[in-house]
């Protein structure tokens, strides 16, 4: 398909991201694969590079506003960066051993989107239909202790590896970890998530550039459309009904992930 449509479609994805907070990679990577017939390896690498700019702009803004937890960013990033590079190393190994990287990544992307979507749908349905339900609270990490720091790095390493392999979940899965295991002020949750993702994606982008699978003819149009789209979506966020919109998008993502897996 003609790539001239990519900025327009990326703009709509950016609006959805700004409007709902749903991760751009969960939408852009499948769009590149299904709509523009881009091979999965190139789609993942190009998406990682295109997402880095948006995350860094957002992270810098939150750093200026002091709406992030620097300690949480530091210890998660110390795990996620080497984890991501390990994931990229696995892709290098698969590529050099003659494995069908596109086939493997297609299924990995599908599984990751399916996992993220099911977790998000479950959380949303519980909040909608059982608002008074009290779930057992998970233990919170104390980053002033050695055990807390090691656990934070371990979580970051596992999720970072998955991001390195698929580009999915640099925001959504880390946000879930921050909500579940970290004692963060609500005002610092988004900033911490975005800032950690910015550091992770910077090193992930460098790794994917070394794979030689980044297509700049895809990256630049995605930047052109998605950045203003995010700004517009953030403005519309104040008036749009969140839960019905999220439910529709999650349903679409669920069908997309099933198609990728099967």
TrEMBL record:
Q: Does the keyword Transmembrane helix apply?
A: yes
| Primary localisation category | membrane
Q: How does it sit in the membrane?
A: Multi-pass membrane protein
Q: Which residues cross the membrane?
A: 6-25, 73-94, 106-130, 150-182, 194-212
Classify the source by domain of life. Bacteria
Compartments (UniProt record): Cell membrane; Membrane
Q: Which UniProt keywords apply?
A: Cell membrane, Membrane, Transmembrane, Transmembrane helix
Got a GO cellular component term for this one?
plasma membrane
The Swiss-Prot or TrEMBL record describes its family as follows: Belongs to the 4-toluene sulfonate uptake permease (TSUP) (TC 2.A.102) family.
Q: What is this protein called?
A: Probable membrane transporter protein
């Amino acid at each position: 398909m003609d790539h001239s449509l990519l900025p327009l479609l990326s703009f709509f994805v950016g609006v959805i991201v700004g409007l709902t907070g749903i991760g751009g990679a969960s939408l852009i990577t499948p769009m590149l694969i299904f709509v523009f017939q881009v091979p999965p390896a190139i789609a993942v690498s190009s998406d990682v590079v295109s997402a880095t700019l948006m995350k860094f702009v957002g992270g810098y803004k939150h750093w200026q506003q002091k709406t992030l937890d620097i300690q949480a960013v530091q210890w998660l990033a110390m795990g996620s960066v080497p984890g991501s590079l390990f994931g990229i190393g696995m892709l290098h190994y698969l590529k050099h051993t003659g494995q069908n990287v596109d086939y493997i990544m297609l299924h990995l992307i599908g599984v990751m989107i399916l996992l993220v979507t099911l977790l998000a749908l479950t959380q949303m349905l519980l909040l909608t239909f059982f608002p008074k339900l009290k779930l057992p609270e998970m233990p919170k990490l104390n980053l002033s202790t050695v055990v807390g720091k090691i656990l934070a790095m371990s979580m970051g390493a596992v999720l970072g590896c998955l991001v390195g392999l698929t580009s999915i979940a640099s925001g959504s899965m880390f946000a879930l970890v921050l909500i579940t295991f970290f004692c963060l002020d609500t005002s610092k949750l988004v900033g911490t998530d975005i800032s950690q993702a910015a550091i992770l994606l910077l090193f992930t982008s460098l790794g994917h550039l070394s794979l030689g699978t980044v297509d700049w003819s895809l990256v630049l149009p995605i930047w052109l459309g998605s950045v203003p789209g995010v700004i517009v979506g953030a403005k519309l966020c104040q008036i749009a009904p969140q839960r019905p919109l999220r439910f529709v998008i999650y349903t679409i993502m669920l069908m997309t992930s099933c198609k990728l897996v099967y």
